[in-house]
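Hi P.,

Sorry for the delay on this. The queue was packed all week, but I finally got your sequence through. Input first:
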Amino acid sequence: MPGRIAPRVPPRRAERERLGAFGGLAALSLDALSSVAYGPEAIVLVLVAAGTSAVRLTLPVAGAIAVLLAVLVVSYRQVIAVHPNGGGSYAVAKSELGGPVSLLAAASLVVDYVLTVAVSLSAGAAAVVSAFPGLSGHMLTLALGGLAVLTAVNLWGIAESARVLMLPMAAFVTVILAVIVTGLARGHPAAAVGGAPAVHAAEAVGFLLVLKAFSAGCSALTGVEAIANAVPAFQEPRARRAQRTEMMLGALLGTMLLGLALLITRDHVAPRAGVTVLAQLTAGAFGTGPLYYAANLVTTLALCLAANTSFGGLPVLLSLLAKDGRLPHLFALRSRRPVYRFGIVALAVCAAVLLLAVDAETSRLIPLYAIGVFIGFTVSQTGLVRHWRTRRPPRWAVHAVLNGTGALLTATAAVVFLVTKFLEGAWVVAVIIPLLMLLFSRIQGYYHAVERELAAGEIVPPPRATAGLVIVPVGGIDRLTAQALRAALTLGPEVVAIAVHDDPERGAAFRDRWNRWGPGVRLETLSSPDHTVVHPIVGYVKERRDRQVAVLVPEVEPRRWRFRLLQDPRPVILATLLRAETDAIVCTYPYRLTSR
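Then the structure:
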């Protein structure tokens, strides 16, 4: 059952169920790696506003993004070293920048992770429909089906999800590198796909246009932070393995991004109707034969499975928020396999609601995308600048300049993206992030109030022994009553049985049978003219406010779950009302049937 606290997992088994460097690359990096399927295209879509000749700027813009990628990789390696318990930008902000900024980092990461799942699955569903037009009416079903599969795999265990994703990740990277190498080896494209380019120059090449292209292309950097957020999921030595994985991610992503940008620039690839820029590059490298369709299917699979990055990173982040008292504590519970199942289920539910809201249309999600992760990038870089200035280790100034430059670049990208996409839907993110911050703050306020009420950390007066009273509601003289009374006598020296009757004669007859039975427990009968049983017992307990009262509620528990609906619901109702309306200690005594 999700969230059940299981027996302690043997250390060797638990370690085997964590991630190695290559497993972490598969489980946590597919989102970042697969972003080359739309990152370079985002650059081209902005630049062609100045005509097809402006496509020549794709490589310089991609080069600037690759520089930023290198800065982020180095930065997150430092984050992993400084905060090996995970949390990424949230951990950095909490340690270096204070409470409000850490709430901003946490809220932005939550939004980004949920959007990553929705965007990846909707893009994958759209790619499937492009290859098989007959499924055009089932995009939402395909996306939700993919979400269900990923949720089930991650509930089973993160190591299992890494094994499932290893082959698709390797296939996607191989396909992209093959497209780059084969395309560059050819003197000109082998084939062209899609309709005729419909490009009309609407503005001149200028600094603002290049800045917008840079901001749009930075969508290829989403997912870079996931490894730093999920360091506890790695095998020992965790920090070192996570850093190695971050370096592998940076090298692969940078190579693919620059290689595709070089092909786009050399061949002057402009957007065409009905196909993606990556599909054009694939056709230019392989032609339109079987390799072309195989490469597109691999890309589709990678986009669908890229959502797994969020399943590896967000549950860990939610567990840290829960430990800090900013989310319900159940998000910090782990199952027998080392996974945070409540976090996984919460992510799946939020992503499903978002997919249903937009009917799995990627175009409606893109304006919401990437803002959250840029905020996280900026916060983590700024926090590290403060870290270096405060502690001043060797070469701290070099680190501070590096992280400060990264913070400036990512903040610029976030602002440009928010402004240019505000009316297209980015305003939703601008509203949701403050609301999440408010939610985290209110939950934290509640837990602080509870700690004050309980005087946590203070020396309170020691408890004193008092004469308690144990009350047992009974409905008859049978094995259930006998065993419940036996259990009650172990809880305290004074036990009282309570019976409720709507007819005085029946009450008197029951008392006569009780006295003949002679259990050694005093019986009190309550009259109930309105034929209710629960409320007279609750009223009786309320009248004993001068004593410590414990109520032992007997109930029958069938052996088979399907018979539970046939049992008397009054014991459950009575226990619920007693907890809500009295200060009594409420216990239930289950009599387990053996035949039913």
